[in-house]
Amino acid sequence: MRNFLFILSILISFTTFSQELKCDVVVNAQQTGNENVQVFKTLENQLNEFVNNTQWTNKTFALQERINCSMVIIINDYDNDTFRASIQIRSSRPIFNSSYSSPVYNFNDRDFTFKYLEFQNLNYNSIQFESNLVSVIAYHIYIILAMDADTFSLNGGEEYYAQARSILSYSQQSNFIGWKPEDGLQSRFSLIDNIMSPTYKEIRSVLYNYHIDGLDNMNQNPKSGKDKIAASLMQLEVLNNRRPNSFILRVFFDAKAEEIEDIFSDGPSVNITDLATALTRIAPMHTSKWRNINF
Question: What residues does each domain of the chain span?
């Protein structure tokens, strides 16, 4: 009986009590010239605990279902409790019957200024602004959750995108950059506005079809998987014809360009002449990669 209870406790810990994210948060202060100041290590430790131990959804994630992600905060300058930084966020999702993880979200948020006192409490409030540090981190966490859900279910990330928009809305009362329409075309405002706009609706169906029909079938039938990936990417030409060089397309290809190059540069040959031409039009900044794909 004792052994049974021990095994049961292990099974429960693997299935009911783990959080949604397995995230590595790094605070890099080399550019300040004072990277060994203790406040930076304290901030890094607190953020790792905050991100990984907060329950961000009402869903249960098993340990193996946690989303792998990373956040690298580059501190450019600081003065007392004011920090001027950028943050690079990346996330990936596992591919069925494979040890491979596919990149989903890759975003460099360059306007990240926040106030922080060492050991201050980091608390997320879903309906109220607490600090720009908490708001920016929470916003990107919900984008991670939303994009990941979109890769498993068509428009499956709706509730998480809505929460990211809610954070955006109440954070606009602050004087921090990135939350308002006038803050540029590559801001947090622009990102969620693009994702949730019907104008860019194809991006979410591509996230779903690319992964479910394409990558998740690659192990079983590589040729069919490649064909499905090519077909899903062709949907982006419709979006590009409507809104050429849109921000959300750049976000998509920042995550996916290298993977697409690898997929179509190896394995069984498929006819992707039309895709290669379309990719050059849709994402010309990655033309050097498109030249490497094989027809």
Answer: 2-196, 202-290
What's the farthest any 2 CA atoms get from each other in the chain?
Answer: 66
Total Cβ atoms within 10 A of residue 285: 11
203 close to 195: Cβ distance less than 8 angstroms:
yes
The label of the residue with tokens 């693997």 reads 14
Provide DSSP, 10-78: HHHHHHTS--SEEEEEEEE-GGGT-TT-HHHHHHHHHHHHHHHHS--SSS---GGGSEEEEEEEEEEEE
Cβ atoms 40, 47 nearer than 8 A: no
CA pair distance 240, 271, nearest whole angstrom: 22
Measured distance CA(223)–CA(204) in Å, rounded:
23
Q: Which residues of 194-222 are buried (b: 16+ CB within 10 A; e: fewer)?
A: bbbeeebbbbbebbbbbbbbbbbbbeeee
Cβ(278)–Cβ(234) below 8 Å:
yes
Place of tokens 């069925």: 96
Give the amino acid at 226: K
- Taking each continuous run of H as one helix and of E as one strand, the counts in the chain are 11, 4
Q: What is the pTM of this model?
A: 0.93
Q: Helices 158-171 and 188-196: crossing angle, nearest 10°? A: 140
- Per-residue pLDDT reduced to its tens digit, 108-162: 999 999 999 999 999 999 999 999 999 999 999 999 999 999 999 999 999 999 9
